[in-house]
TrEMBL record, chain A:
Keywords: DNA-binding, Membrane, Transcription, Transcription regulation, Transmembrane, Transmembrane helix. SUPFAM superfamilies: C-terminal effector domain of the bipartite response regulators. InterPro entries: Sig_transdc_resp-reg_C-effctor, Tscrpt_reg_LuxR_C, WH-like_DNA-bd_sf. GO terms for molecular function: DNA binding. GO terms for biological process: regulation of DNA-templated transcription. It comes from Donghicola mangrovi. This is Helix-turn-helix transcriptional regulator. The chain crosses the membrane at residues 12-30, 50-72. Residues 102-159 form the HTH luxR-type domain.
UniProtKB/TrEMBL annotation, chain B:
It is found in: Cell membrane. GO terms for molecular function: electron transfer activity; heme binding. It comes from Donghicola mangrovi. Residues 6-167 form the Cytochrome b561 bacterial/Ni-hydrogenase domain. One of its GO terms (biological process) is respiratory electron transport chain. The chain crosses the membrane at residues 12-29, 35-56, 94-115, 135-152. GO terms for cellular component: plasma membrane. It holds the Pfam family Ni_hydr_CYTB. Its main location: membrane. It is a multi-pass membrane protein. This is Cytochrome B. Keywords: Cell membrane, Membrane, Transmembrane, Transmembrane helix.
Length: 175, 178
């Protein structure tokens, strides 16, 4: 749910530190497993312990990749909300992000779509993202294409529509 | 295009000497030779020089221009996650963390390696274990460092390896303010 960006920033930093510690452990375990295999050679087939060790190491590596994905999502959400401490705005942002995902927008397109909703011009978006205006225009065109709209106004209408519909659905559960 | 001189000759000489020394000891030289030990002493000298240079060197070489910062690092990761790109003229926050990591790890490697040669720790197991683990970590870090340099060069369109040779970062016109 909605939480202030200051707290989420601390959460992201905490997750990064945790991941670093886990990467250190993973590097140790992976090299250890590899040297174990080199030691036992062909006898490895009969070593149940080695299988478990390999599985445990693999799951640690997978967990790190999963956390990386979570961290990326967290940072994207935070970047879209920027300094907003307003809970209602965070909730609206969540609905919009979900819609962006449904349209199949890339992370860059999601970022640009968020700036578009906030009313920034193409030139302003280019400056905020440190990229060329032409690049932003290309991204805008694929946002229109993926959402099935022709211009900014239509994108905004679609989003406004889905915010109102979602608001309707959640009304009975809140009552 | 805008060219900015960032890495002074001392920083570049330090970087490539360290590359040569680490490669020699990790991949080429036999661990039990005297030469392996001498190269280790060279690494100690290089680290000591870099620490001093981090205090008195040129603008972008100083530690004060790239303080370790977790929030800076998550900020840079957020730029990657959203596809935004704002150029850092000197070291990036993640790059800075990698530098501190490598300097610290190499210090641990050389110290544990030195202890293995002393009479006091002759036959004691832990210095060798520490030496091995820290080398594995350093090798992983070097691979990650190279991968990150290539990734960031492509993402930000700034040729970082070339900057470490020439000392000059060439920044695209659309970035860095306007």
């Amino acid at each position: 749910m909605a939480f202030s960006s200051r707290i989420s920033r601390r959460k992201a930093a905490g997750l990064l530190i945790l991941m670093t510690a886990q990467v250190f452990c993973a590097v140790f375990f992976v090299t250890d497993v590899i040297s174990d295999y080199q030691e036992v050679g062909v006898d490895a087939v009969a070593h149940t312990h080695l299988y478990i060790e390999t599985l445990a190491t693999l799951s640690l590596v997978l967990a790190i990749l999963f956390e990386g994905n979570v961290l990326a999502k967290m940072l994207r959400r935070q970047a879209h909300l920027e300094a907003s401490l307003n809970n209602a705005r965070a909730a609206v942002q969540d609905i919009m992000d979900e819609q962006f995902e449904q349209w199949g927008l890339t992370p860059s397109e999601q970022d640009i779509a968020t700036f578009l909703v906030k009313g920034f011009s193409t030139a302003e978006i280019a400056e905020l993202r440190g990229s060329a205006e032409g690049t932003v225009k290309t991204h805008l065109n694929s946002i229109y294409r993926k959402s099935g709209s022709r211009n900014r106004t239509e994108v905004l209408s679609l989003l406004l529509d889905c915010i109102m519909v979602t608001g309707d659905k959640s009304a009975p559960t809140q009552a | 295009m805008k060219s900015i001189k960032v890495w002074d000759p001392a920083v570049r000489l330090f970087h490539w000497s360290l590359v040569a020394a680490f490669t020699a000891n990790a991949l080429i030289l036999d661990d039990d030779t005297k030469l392996h030990q001498y190269v280790g002493y060279v690494v100690v000298g290089l680290i000591a020089f870099r620490v001093v240079w981090g205090l008195v060197g040129s603008q972008y070489a100083r530690f004060s221009s790239f303080p370790p910062s977790v929030t800076g690092a998550t900020g840079q990761l957020a730029e990657m996650a959203t596809g935004r790109k704002h150029i850092h003229v000197g070291h990036t926050p993640l790059g800075a963390l990698m530098i501190y990591n490598l300097l610290f790890t190499l210090a641990v490697i050389t110290l544990s390696g030195y202890l293995m040669t002393t009479d006091m720790f002759w036959g004691v197991e832990w210095p060798e274990e520490v030496h091995k683990i820290s080398i594995t970590w350093a090798e992983f870090s070097v691979v990650l460092h190279i991968a990150a340099v290539i990734f960031e060069s492509r993402r930000t369109k700034v040729n970082l390896p070339r900057a470490m040779f020439t000392g000059v970062k060439v920044l695209p016109e659309t970035q860095g303010g306007n």
